[in-house]
Amino acid sequence: MESSHLSDVALFMGLKLYEWMTLLGIIAGPICAVLITLWVDRRRRKSDARTQILRMILTTRRLPSDPAYVMAINLIEVEFNDCPTVMKARSEYLELAVREVSESGKKDHEQRMVAKQATMIVEMMKAIGLKASESEILTDAYVSKGFIFRDDLYLDSLRAMRDIAEALKVSNFLVARSMGIGDESAKDALNALPNEGVRE
Protein backbone atom coordinates (compact mmCIF):
# COMPACT_ATOMS: atom_id res chain seq x y z
CA MET A 1 0.00 0.00 0.00
CA GLU A 2 2.83 2.32 0.92
CA SER A 3 4.79 1.57 -2.28
CA SER A 4 1.81 2.28 -4.54
CA HIS A 5 1.25 5.53 -2.64
CA LEU A 6 4.92 6.48 -3.26
CA SER A 7 4.58 5.93 -7.03
CA ASP A 8 1.60 8.31 -7.13
CA VAL A 9 3.44 11.12 -5.35
CA ALA A 10 5.07 13.80 -7.51
CA LEU A 11 8.81 13.66 -6.83
CA PHE A 12 10.25 16.45 -8.97
CA MET A 13 8.87 18.91 -11.52
CA GLY A 14 5.45 17.40 -11.10
CA LEU A 15 6.50 13.98 -12.41
CA LYS A 16 5.78 10.80 -10.51
CA LEU A 17 8.27 7.99 -9.89
CA TYR A 18 7.07 5.73 -12.72
CA GLU A 19 7.15 8.71 -15.11
CA TRP A 20 10.76 9.42 -14.16
CA MET A 21 11.60 5.74 -14.64
CA THR A 22 9.99 5.78 -18.10
CA LEU A 23 11.83 8.98 -19.04
CA LEU A 24 15.13 7.53 -17.82
CA GLY A 25 14.52 4.37 -19.87
CA ILE A 26 13.72 6.42 -23.00
CA ILE A 27 16.97 8.41 -22.66
CA ALA A 28 19.36 5.78 -21.27
CA GLY A 29 18.22 2.84 -23.44
CA PRO A 30 19.46 4.16 -26.81
CA ILE A 31 22.66 5.56 -25.26
CA CYS A 32 23.47 2.19 -23.68
CA ALA A 33 22.67 0.42 -26.96
CA VAL A 34 25.02 2.72 -28.90
CA LEU A 35 27.81 2.31 -26.32
CA ILE A 36 27.46 -1.49 -26.36
CA THR A 37 27.45 -1.51 -30.19
CA LEU A 38 30.61 0.65 -30.30
CA TRP A 39 32.33 -1.60 -27.75
CA VAL A 40 31.43 -4.77 -29.66
CA ASP A 41 32.47 -3.19 -32.98
CA ARG A 42 35.82 -2.08 -31.54
CA ARG A 43 36.52 -5.58 -30.22
CA ARG A 44 35.55 -7.13 -33.55
CA ARG A 45 37.83 -4.77 -35.50
CA LYS A 46 40.72 -5.48 -33.13
CA SER A 47 40.16 -9.23 -33.46
CA ASP A 48 39.99 -8.94 -37.28
CA ALA A 49 43.26 -6.97 -37.40
CA ARG A 50 45.01 -9.50 -35.15
CA THR A 51 43.70 -12.40 -37.22
CA GLN A 52 44.90 -10.73 -40.44
CA ILE A 53 48.42 -10.28 -39.02
CA LEU A 54 48.49 -13.89 -37.85
CA ARG A 55 47.39 -15.08 -41.31
CA MET A 56 50.14 -13.04 -42.97
CA ILE A 57 52.76 -14.57 -40.68
CA LEU A 58 51.44 -18.10 -41.11
CA THR A 59 51.38 -17.88 -44.91
CA THR A 60 54.89 -16.40 -45.18
CA ARG A 61 56.69 -17.91 -42.18
CA ARG A 62 58.97 -20.03 -44.37
CA LEU A 63 59.81 -16.96 -46.52
CA PRO A 64 61.05 -14.32 -44.05
CA SER A 65 62.32 -12.09 -46.88
CA ASP A 66 58.73 -11.69 -48.12
CA PRO A 67 57.53 -8.06 -47.66
CA ALA A 68 54.20 -9.29 -46.21
CA TYR A 69 56.11 -11.18 -43.49
CA VAL A 70 58.19 -8.13 -42.56
CA MET A 71 55.06 -5.94 -42.49
CA ALA A 72 53.20 -8.41 -40.26
CA ILE A 73 56.12 -8.65 -37.80
CA ASN A 74 56.19 -4.85 -37.54
CA LEU A 75 52.40 -4.61 -37.08
CA ILE A 76 52.46 -6.96 -34.08
CA GLU A 77 53.66 -4.02 -32.02
CA VAL A 78 50.50 -2.07 -32.88
CA GLU A 79 47.79 -4.74 -32.69
CA PHE A 80 49.14 -6.93 -29.86
CA ASN A 81 50.54 -4.11 -27.72
CA ASP A 82 48.37 -5.06 -24.74
CA CYS A 83 49.51 -8.73 -24.83
CA PRO A 84 52.75 -8.97 -22.81
CA THR A 85 53.39 -12.60 -23.77
CA VAL A 86 53.14 -11.82 -27.50
CA MET A 87 55.35 -8.75 -27.17
CA LYS A 88 57.95 -10.71 -25.20
CA ALA A 89 57.98 -13.52 -27.80
CA ARG A 90 58.29 -10.96 -30.62
CA SER A 91 61.14 -9.19 -28.84
CA GLU A 92 63.04 -12.48 -28.36
CA TYR A 93 62.49 -13.40 -32.02
CA LEU A 94 63.71 -10.01 -33.28
CA GLU A 95 66.70 -10.06 -30.95
CA LEU A 96 67.77 -13.34 -32.54
CA ALA A 97 66.88 -12.19 -36.08
CA VAL A 98 69.25 -9.21 -36.05
CA ARG A 99 72.16 -11.13 -34.53
CA GLU A 100 75.19 -11.61 -36.77
CA VAL A 101 76.37 -15.23 -36.92
CA SER A 102 79.38 -16.96 -38.43
CA GLU A 103 79.05 -19.33 -41.36
CA SER A 104 79.59 -22.33 -39.05
CA GLY A 105 76.83 -21.21 -36.65
CA LYS A 106 74.18 -20.50 -39.30
CA LYS A 107 72.39 -23.86 -39.04
CA ASP A 108 72.05 -23.66 -35.24
CA HIS A 109 70.96 -20.02 -35.50
CA GLU A 110 68.28 -20.93 -38.07
CA GLN A 111 66.88 -23.67 -35.81
CA ARG A 112 66.67 -21.27 -32.87
CA MET A 113 64.98 -18.68 -35.11
CA VAL A 114 62.34 -21.19 -36.20
CA ALA A 115 61.72 -22.17 -32.55
CA LYS A 116 61.34 -18.52 -31.47
CA GLN A 117 59.05 -17.89 -34.42
CA ALA A 118 56.86 -20.85 -33.38
CA THR A 119 56.67 -19.50 -29.80
CA MET A 120 55.61 -16.10 -31.13
CA ILE A 121 52.92 -17.62 -33.37
CA VAL A 122 51.52 -19.75 -30.53
CA GLU A 123 51.29 -16.69 -28.25
CA MET A 124 49.51 -14.75 -31.00
CA MET A 125 47.05 -17.61 -31.48
CA LYS A 126 46.34 -17.70 -27.73
CA ALA A 127 45.65 -13.94 -27.75
CA ILE A 128 43.09 -14.45 -30.53
CA GLY A 129 41.51 -17.47 -28.84
CA LEU A 130 42.91 -20.20 -31.09
CA LYS A 131 44.74 -23.31 -29.92
CA ALA A 132 47.94 -24.80 -31.31
CA SER A 133 51.13 -26.26 -29.93
CA GLU A 134 54.65 -25.23 -30.88
CA SER A 135 55.30 -28.70 -32.32
CA GLU A 136 52.29 -28.30 -34.66
CA ILE A 137 53.53 -24.89 -35.79
CA LEU A 138 57.01 -26.29 -36.42
CA THR A 139 55.82 -29.24 -38.51
CA ASP A 140 52.67 -28.01 -40.27
CA ALA A 141 54.09 -25.27 -42.52
CA TYR A 142 54.08 -25.94 -46.26
CA VAL A 143 55.98 -24.22 -49.04
CA SER A 144 56.39 -25.89 -52.40
CA LYS A 145 59.91 -26.54 -53.69
CA GLY A 146 59.01 -24.72 -56.88
CA PHE A 147 58.09 -21.59 -54.95
CA ILE A 148 61.37 -21.68 -52.99
CA PHE A 149 63.29 -22.22 -56.26
CA ARG A 150 61.50 -19.24 -57.82
CA ASP A 151 62.23 -17.06 -54.78
CA ASP A 152 65.91 -18.08 -54.76
CA LEU A 153 66.16 -17.45 -58.51
CA TYR A 154 64.66 -13.98 -58.05
CA LEU A 155 67.15 -13.14 -55.27
CA ASP A 156 70.03 -14.45 -57.39
CA SER A 157 68.91 -12.26 -60.31
CA LEU A 158 68.88 -9.18 -58.04
CA ARG A 159 72.43 -9.96 -56.88
CA ALA A 160 73.52 -10.49 -60.49
CA MET A 161 72.06 -7.10 -61.50
CA ARG A 162 74.05 -5.42 -58.73
CA ASP A 163 77.24 -7.20 -59.84
CA ILE A 164 76.62 -6.23 -63.47
CA ALA A 165 76.19 -2.57 -62.48
CA GLU A 166 79.47 -2.66 -60.52
CA ALA A 167 81.28 -4.33 -63.43
CA LEU A 168 79.97 -1.66 -65.83
CA LYS A 169 81.29 1.10 -63.57
CA VAL A 170 84.74 -0.50 -63.51
CA SER A 171 84.61 -1.09 -67.27
CA ASN A 172 83.67 2.54 -67.93
CA PHE A 173 86.56 3.69 -65.75
CA LEU A 174 89.05 1.48 -67.58
CA VAL A 175 87.80 2.59 -71.00
CA ALA A 176 87.92 6.26 -70.01
CA ARG A 177 91.40 5.82 -68.54
CA SER A 178 92.75 4.04 -71.62
CA MET A 179 91.45 6.87 -73.79
CA GLY A 180 92.66 9.56 -71.38
CA ILE A 181 89.15 11.04 -71.17
CA GLY A 182 87.86 12.40 -67.85
CA ASP A 183 90.53 10.58 -65.87
CA GLU A 184 89.95 12.42 -62.56
CA SER A 185 86.14 12.20 -62.63
CA ALA A 186 86.38 8.53 -63.59
CA LYS A 187 88.69 7.91 -60.63
CA ASP A 188 86.30 9.73 -58.28
CA ALA A 189 83.37 7.65 -59.51
CA LEU A 190 85.32 4.44 -59.03
CA ASN A 191 86.47 5.43 -55.52
CA ALA A 192 82.85 6.11 -54.56
CA LEU A 193 81.91 2.46 -55.14
CA PRO A 194 80.67 0.83 -51.93
CA ASN A 195 82.33 -2.55 -52.45
CA GLU A 196 85.71 -3.77 -53.60
CA GLY A 197 86.52 -2.85 -57.19
CA VAL A 198 89.54 -2.18 -59.34
CA ARG A 199 91.73 0.40 -57.69
CA GLU A 200 94.79 2.22 -59.02
Task: Please describe the topology of this protein.
Layout: H1 2-8, E1 10-12, E2 15-16, H2 17-60, H3 67-79, H4 84-97, H5 106-128, H6 134-140, H7 145-179, H8 183-191
Antiparallel strand pairs: 1-2
Helix pairs in contact: 2-3, 2-5, 4-5, 5-6, 7-8
Keywords:
mainly alpha, 200 residues, 8 helices, 76% helix
Tell me about this structure.
α4 runs antiparallel to α5 (106-128) and α5 packs across α6 (134-140). The radius of gyration is 32 Å and the shape is elongated. The chain has helices spanning 2-8, 17-60, 67-79, 84-97, 106-128, 134-140, 145-179, 183-191; strands at residues 10-12, 15-16. It has 8 helices and 2 strands; from the N terminus they run αββααααααα. By secondary structure, the protein is mainly alpha-helical. The termini are far apart. The chain has a two-stranded antiparallel ribbon with strand order 1-2. The longest helix has 44 residues, at 17-60.
